[in-house]
Amino acid sequence: MTDQAYWLHHLCIYDEKPRDHMWNWLKWYHAIPQYYWGGEEFHLTDEGHVDYTFLAAGSGFQIQMESPPFQFKYEQEWHAEHGSGVNHICWIVPNAKATVDYLMSNGCTTRMEYEEFGVYRGYVCADPEGRWIEIMDYIGDFKTPDVEFRPVGIPGLQLFGATQLTENLAEMSDWYQRVLGLRPIHGGVDEGIVFLADEKHSAERNIAMIMAEPQSEAERVLMQEHGPVISGANYQAVDLERADRDAIAAGFERVSELAMDERTGMRTSVLREPSGNLVYLREMLAV
């Protein structure tokens, strides 16, 4: 069983043109809770620089857009192989260093060794199927600002998580429950999709990580090209039709029309954001 709490914080998109593409998100009811452009308050490296923009829509779970040349060699190598895409999910813990041996002894592999920067401490590892996990804790008063946990804009849009495509849903769903202490709140292995929540999940903080078998052609292509992958961000909306129309108007591409998802029993559309990642838009989830 996990020895600490792991709280979902953000997913990171490596985007070759974030300054251009962020406008599409902003047109779709997103806000910028924080951005970082080097400076003494943040860490700089010899291998790159800091260029982070955080985007949010009605949730403390956020999108981090990171631009080239990226900070570290291992990140540059990932981008050279995969191009623009969702690189990792970040988890906040009370003590990052105390989790290193625990995760490594439970099937993780190191991507970036534990390091202490001026504002946070952490490391990057890969889960047993190879998807990247960032573990970090804050130092002092530094913190990426949270946003209000309530739907925003005319359609009541809310970012509520990210989808991870898996080769073995039963094993990976069990791993995240056993090792990170998550619990299932929707779906199931038999349905081909499992919604997992951390211990802070509530009606106010309705955030989940979705583990799923690839179902659509778009998901199968992602798996063929990249292996087990974080395929994209998940949203829900009070006015689903309006949110769907507004996403297209904001410059997102249509992958599939609004239709009933047999796995979840919810009406869902799939879009593609400008850097190529999938965006899943669904009806409001019940807690």
General description of the model:
The protein is α+β, with helices and mostly antiparallel strands. It folds into two domains: 7-138, Roll (2,3-Dihydroxybiphenyl 1,2-Dioxygenase, domain 1), CATH 3.10.180; 157-283, Roll (2,3-Dihydroxybiphenyl 1,2-Dioxygenase, domain 1), CATH 3.10.180. It has helices spanning 18-27, 73-82, 100-104, 169-180, 217-226, 240-249; strands at 7-14, 31-36, 52-56, 62-66, 85-92, 109-116, 120-126, 132-138, 157-165, 183-188, 193-197, 208-212, 229-237, 253-261, 266-272, 278-283. The strands form two sheets. The chain has an eight-stranded mixed sheet with strand order 2-3-4-1-5-8-7-6. The longest helix has 12 residues, at 169-180. The two termini are 24 Å apart.
Principal-axes geometry comes out as globular
On the 0 to 100 scale, the average pLDDT is 92
| Secondary-structure arrangement, i.e. CATH architecture of the largest domain | Roll
Tally of helical runs: 6
- Span between termini: 24 Å
CATH fold label of the largest domain: 2,3-Dihydroxybiphenyl 1,2-Dioxygenase, domain 1
Q: Can you tell me the CATH superfamily of the largest domain? A: 2,3-Dihydroxybiphenyl 1,2-Dioxygenase, domain 1
